[in-house]
Amino acid sequence: MLELWYLISLSISCMILLLLAGILFFRMSRHAKERRRQRVTELWQPLLERCLDTPLEGLPSLTPPQHIVFLYLWNEHSESKSEAITTHLICMAQHVGADQFARGLLHSRLLHRKILAVVTLGRLQDRSVWNEVCALLTHSNSFLAFQAAQALLCIDAQAAIPLLVPLIGHRQDWSPLKIASMLGTVGPDFASETMVLAARQGDSIVAPRLIRHLPTTKSPRGLSALRQFLHEQPPSDDVLAACLFVFGEFRDPTDLHVIRTHLSSPAWYVRVQAATALGKLGTQEDEARLIALFDDEHWWVRYRAGEALASLKSMTENTLERLQETLLTPEAQEVLAPVLAKFRARHAQHSTSDATGPIHLVSTEK
């Protein structure tokens, strides 16, 4: 038994020593990487900043570990820069062999290095890796596939769109807001049209999500394609609600007839979006349409109809007060009372801000 306890204690001691050695090695390795990163940053940060103004020559060489740090710095400087500055940065990266090094990283088994390679090659506009980057569009890792899509857009947007549209329309793990941001790099008009095209070819879950993010592009170019989409085939209620939301955000009078038509839709959330949109671009003749929704069976429809009524440019406090006297149903009274209170508070605030405008001091000196 003593020998057994001796062997057990010796084994535990060895395991503890190995664990301590592993921790020490890990900390030493991390400190070495940090010192290398700091040295590379101190050397290349000023060079990258000077390169933004004029191309540089006689640049120092880089070892593979230093090249990793350089690529992170280079991508940080390349982001959101003008075309002229980007050209200088691309020449600098090619001069130090960053394009060749990034092509090698593209085959790395480490995910973060593969992502770094994809981002770098996209910003370098390296057409030679087109097929390899295309293969990553269907990768199981959502972030890597998304970065591959961005890289293809940077390399050749016109050629990338036919590949990306079906993917955008079916990939549920991509945020529509990120998609809008990604497409925005090639222009808001192009982004707007592409998102509508992807929604038309997408599934029933992704399509309404994409349509709802059209206003983030701030481009009305996609509206014509969206109207055509509604006329070609009967859309689902989710897609229809998303379209009505977009029409309300862009406030184009062309869509007023479509909005009015769907105030009586069987789906209550479609009626909600129609009422909300009507409040943004409706006219005085829409007052009766919104008042009729005060008796709707769904509370959200009644509530949004009340808000929309108060948002009409033709609406006044006297009109709301007279309407409150004529409405008899509890549902209508429930909606109109808070709407009238908010209307009064909003206009009182505007009156106060107008009354307390900038004060101009008048000199009394002669």
Low-confidence stretches: 358-366
Spatial shape: elongated
Number of strands: 0
Main beta-sheet strand count, sense and barrel state? none
Q: In a few lines, what is going on in this structure?
A:
The protein is mainly alpha-helical. The chain is built from 19 helices and no strands.
Could you please describe the fold and organization of this structure?
This protein has a domain at 35-155. The model is unreliable at 358-366 (pLDDT under 50). The chain has 19 helices and no strands. The termini are far apart. It has 366 residues and is an all-alpha fold. Helix 5 packs parallel to helix 7 (142-155) and helix 13 runs parallel beside helix 15.
Topology (elements, then pairings):
Blueprint: H1 2-51, H2 64-78, H3 83-95, H4 98-105, H5 111-123, H6 130-135, H7 142-155, H8 157-170, H9 176-184, H10 188-201, H11 206-212, H12 221-232, H13 237-250, H14 256-261, H15 268-281, H16 287-292, H17 299-311, H18 317-326, H19 330-355
Helix pairs in contact: 1-2, 2-5, 4-5, 5-7, 7-8, 8-10, 9-10, 10-11, 10-12, 11-13, 13-15, 15-17, 17-19, 18-19
Highlighted features:
single chain, mainly alpha, 0% strand
